[in-house]
């Protein structure tokens, strides 16, 4: 079967039936049944990339992999930047992909953080500023390494998009939910709204995991994470190395036989350099525990981000009686204590 049949279009001369373009500007007439049959056999593949989080080496490996499979259509699902070192290199890869391929982009909650920080004149909405340390150091580092052009580009991205490719059913795509970058897709409100979408398939990011579920005739497919894939949460007291250690994730959506079929892919990449970059960029000094959690995630495929900051807040409260309003109010020493409970090493050599 050829990879791509020429697009049948309505015949301008006869007013009905289809023509099939041929080389040299010629065409031939085919019946509507033949056109439908050809459409049903046609195969497209769309590469779907979510949650790069600054890990440009993981993104590069995924783009190289997709190019080797001759993929020309891409959907990018947000959270391109923040966390890993050298976000400007992610931006270069995205701009290059936008110029070379047929791409669609939405923005994630991390892009929203950058947009609103700039909109407030380099401040949070409450007037506070980001400072070095494990809570905000990685955000501040990222903000300093982006240009106005980058943040302008984020501002131009939609929260939700829809893509009709050829005769395939349209696909919807978003970061958290089609209505908010940071929505949790399983919330009652989000699920209620999902049923109102005109599309029957939704590609999403934000969860950093591969999964798929059906809800009232709509199939939602989560594309995992290019830069920070998650197999399970990090547990206190143990270092678990999972199948998602040292790999990037991406989703391929194939349109074949008249339906969309997901293929979940893990891609090896230069994870050693990604870890070295945390040191080289200064992130290990500017956000010590956050950088250590990033390293831990790369090396194990587990997620310390949901547990360790909360534990730091708790340890601070137990020790001082002060209930911090957020992570930013917790002194660094409590982040270090929480990291130790979860066996997250601040000295890289201990985990190699
Ligand atoms: Fe994310
Ligand atoms: Fe997100």
TrEMBL record:
Entry-linked InterPro entries: Ap4A_hydrolase, Calcineurin-like_PHP, Metallo-depent_PP-like
A Pfam family assignment: Metallophos
Leader peptide range in chain numbering: none
Domain of life: Bacteria
Domain Calcineurin-like phosphoesterase as annotated: residue spans: 45-195
Protein name: Calcineurin-like phosphoesterase domain-containing protein
